[in-house]
Amino acid sequence: MALVKAQGLIIKSVKFGEANRILTVLTREFGKIQVAANNVGRGKGGATSSQMFAYSNFTLFRGQKSLYRLNDADCIEFFDVLRSDLEKLSYAAYFADLTCSITSENNADDEKLLNLLLNALHLLCKGTPNLRSKFSFNEGPGNIPAAGWECHQELVPANDTPVKTAQESKTQVAARLDAVDRLANPNNGLHFNRKIKLVFELRAISLAGFMPDFDCCHNCGIEQNINTFDLVNSVVRCKNCIMVAPNIAEFNDTLLNACRYITMAEMNKIFSFEMNDELLVYLSDIIERYVAIHIDKRLQSLDYLKGVLRNG
Questions:
Q1: Are residues 156 and 303 in the same domain?
Q2: End position of a domain, from candidates 26, 54, 77
Q3: What is the pLDDT of residues 215-236, one digit of tens each?
Q4: Considering only CA atoms, which of 264, 226, 267, 222 is closest in space to residue 117?
Q5: Of 50, 143, 151, 273, which is least surrounded by CB within 10 A?
Q6: pLDDT in tens, 181-197
Q7: Does residue 73 share a domain with residue 87?
Q8: What is the domain range of residue 207?
């Protein structure tokens, strides 16, 4: 067996036996892989590095088959806040479940999705960013709640460098996350958690190859006066090209600009916007339906999250 190193996040853990687990790990180097972890908690790295949402440097044995075996793990980030907050843990579980559903094994191109998931988990733990500058989009439609979408620019390095693609040391990870910590503001957590979900869903499904065409009306090419979003065909249409069909949602230019921002902004800026509650709920419902249509299944983790939110 060859010994390899990988940096990744545990997104699924299945227990077998007294102290053994099969871990699903989303790694920078190999994409999503399956790792057999025997006697977890008894060897190097301890139980922490083998639990859900542990982001670690792994040393693995790679055989001829697709299953890796855990040799050692050094935890970089544990996201321990998630374990003391049922709502945040439920959001995180849904994000991990969705990630498992839209990724295939051994696809090294999933690093952007890993970065997205890490940033989403970090912001769930830290709260609402307090952002410095903003740009408003205030056009409202007739049958959709009045638009109040605002785009912000984060306090990030001037070169807008995306999250590192190479392996990061603990110091590098801490420095990167500290840049987000400086923006943290615990106010309006429910609203912000819902926004994290919206951003994660739309950006993740786009990275998985299901990015909607938000450029212009699918029929005539006009870029303004967008009126509907066709969830099945992944296109938008203007008011002059309206189609009557199932799974077509009412839309407008404000929603269009919000979706363009989420799908195209740099990874370190995609959470940096504001949206009023009504519009956020409306767009979140649309994107949730869009994801369900294109992954072709209903995730139990989403139902559980909704139950937690209803009872919270």
A1: yes
A2: 77
A3: 999 999 999 899 999 999 999 9
A4: 267
A5: 143
A6: 333 333 455 688 999 99
A7: no
A8: 80-311
